[in-house]
Inverse folding.
């Protein structure tokens, strides 16, 4: 199958997505429609929007490659954490309460929620700046992962792929907003679900790997299932598989940051704001949980299979001047493993779909930080909705441009870029958000103390420990504020009762 046929399939896919964006643009009348879809999304669209935002090219390219090679089958702990904690528990604990409280407080963004919950306008400004600054590198990491895949499968240069993807994202999102994202996420989610299952099955059944059962046995160290690797010791305690693993502390940090981190990421929490009603949440939990399990398993298991395909050493083309080129392992594995060309294209479209979902949510949330939160902190965004909509669309384009600039610099390891972004945002927002939802005694001083500790940890630990310490630094940055906020809150003046009632007490029914 020629590159022109591949490109034709991509063009058809893009045309469908742009058509959805145009159709949604015609029904997008307000800021609430643009950012939340009017809070009218049912369980399937909400669950798929959550799952497709969670898992992007960073998972399938960066995480699957570097972590699959580094940890092998032990990445299944990350799969369990992402499914049970990052998805099921998040929906169970947070979705209903978040939706109810944001409706009471008339908030549609994380900064707006924090301002209304703690009755402090400067908190909205600070939060908005943090959202915009730290989501830019995350967005850049998604663009990088997808561009590497396009470079190795469609033979498009990295730079040209970047320009194409950023242009497509800007046009598509500026047109339709969140409803376009959610509707296309449902379509993309189906493509991803089918694609990831096909990918795992076909990669596991390569002659070098031997099938799913045998491959799993070899990864677990069963000597009877590992004839291709020689002896039982090849996958035993002292094997190359164990030696290449960075350590259990790093693995635990990765489980925590990728599972608890999404609890407070603005682009993930947004999915709880937009669901139609509490009654839809139970079904959304099941749908999102199943989707997350299959997506995470497919990515990490495929990454672990690289051990069985390449053997104890990566091929020379994946070794650069400074060591392994982690971000190219999965694209190389997919394109050289003997998959039928048509199925390689299915995998490409799957990763493309996941990445466009994540990228769209990131751009939408980040642009809202300026157009809704910064602008709304100084002017009533409801007074001139057309101006707010225009600013929101403009900032979508600006944010994409900033992400493009970072991606063009090719920072080292997109995995580290994403973890730094997740760790920093979770360090700032996780404690204020969780305590704001569940604990009435949380004070403004406690919130500022927790956010300050999160920022200081992020800048200090990421700088001092370097790339090898990024996962542990991210986990510490995320969890330390959870200790600081309650301690400071107990030592400082509580919020006025009227502020607490506004967040926790339903308004009396109108006569």
């Amino acid at each position: 199958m020629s590159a022109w046929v591949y490109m034709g399939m991509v063009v058809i896919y893009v045309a469908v997505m742009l058509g959805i964006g145009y159709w949604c643009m015609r029904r997008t009348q307000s800021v609430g429609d643009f950012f939340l879809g009017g809070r009218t999304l049912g369980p399937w669209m909400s669950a798929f929007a959550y799952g497709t935002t969670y898992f992007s090219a960073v998972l399938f390219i960066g995480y699957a490659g570097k972590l699959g090679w580094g940890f092998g089958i032990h990445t299944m702990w990350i799969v369990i954490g992402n499914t049970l904690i990052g998805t099921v528990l998040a929906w169970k604990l947070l979705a209903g309460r978040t939706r109810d409280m944001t409706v009471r407080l008339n908030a549609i963004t994380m900064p707006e929620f924090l301002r209304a919950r703690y009755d402090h306008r400067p908190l909205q400004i600070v939060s908005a700046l943090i959202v915009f600054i730290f989501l830019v590198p995350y967005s850049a990491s998604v663009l990088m992962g997808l561009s590497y895949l396009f470079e190795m499968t469609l033979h498009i240069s990295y730079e040209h792929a970047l320009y194409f993807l950023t242009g497509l994202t800007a046009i598509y999102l500026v047109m339709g907003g969140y409803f376009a994202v959610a509707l296309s996420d449902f379509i993309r989610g189906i493509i991803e679900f089918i694609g990831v299952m096909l990918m795992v099955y076909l990669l596991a059944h390569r002659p070098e790997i031997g099938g799913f059962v045998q491959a799993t046995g070899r990864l677990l160290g069963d000597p009877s299932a590992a004839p291709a690797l020689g002896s039982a010791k090849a996958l035993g305690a002292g094997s190359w598989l164990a030696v290449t693993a960075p350590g259990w502390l790093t693995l635990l940090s990765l489980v925590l940051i990728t599972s608890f981190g999404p609890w407070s990421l603005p682009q993930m929490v947004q999915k709880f704001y937009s669901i139609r009603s509490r009654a839809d949440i139970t079904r959304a939990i099941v749908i999102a949980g199943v989707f997350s399990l299959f997506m995470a398993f497919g990515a990490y298991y495929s990454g672990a299979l690289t051990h069985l395909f390449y053997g104890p050493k990566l091929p020379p083309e994946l070794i650069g001047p400074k060591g392994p080129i982690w971000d190219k392992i999965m694209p190389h594995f997919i394109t050289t493993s003997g998959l039928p060309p048509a199925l390689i294209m299915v995998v490409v479209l799957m990763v493309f779909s996941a990445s466009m979902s994540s990228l769209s949510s990131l751009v939408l949330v980040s642009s809202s930080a300026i157009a809704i939160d910064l602008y709304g902190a100084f002017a009533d965004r409801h007074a001139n909705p057309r101006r707010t909509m225009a600013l929101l669309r403009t900032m979508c384009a600006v944010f994409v441009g900033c992400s493009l600039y970072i991606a063009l610099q090719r920072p080292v390891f997109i995995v580290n870029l994403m973890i730094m972004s997740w760790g920093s945002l979770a360090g700032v927002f996780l404690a204020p958000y969780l305590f704001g939802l569940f604990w009435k005694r949380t004070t403004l001083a406690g919130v500022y103390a927790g956010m300050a500790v999160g920022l200081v940890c992020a800048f200090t630990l990421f700088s001092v420990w370097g790339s090898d310490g990024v996962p542990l630094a991210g986990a510490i940055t995320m969890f330390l504020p959870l200790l600081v906020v309650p301690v400071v809150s107990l030592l400082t003046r509580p919020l006025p009762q009227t502020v607490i009632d506004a967040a926790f007490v339903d308004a009396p029914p109108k006569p």
Q: What stands out?
A: The chain has one domain: 3-401. The chain has 21 helices and two strands. Residues 131 and 366 are 6 Å apart (CA to CA). The mean pLDDT is 77.
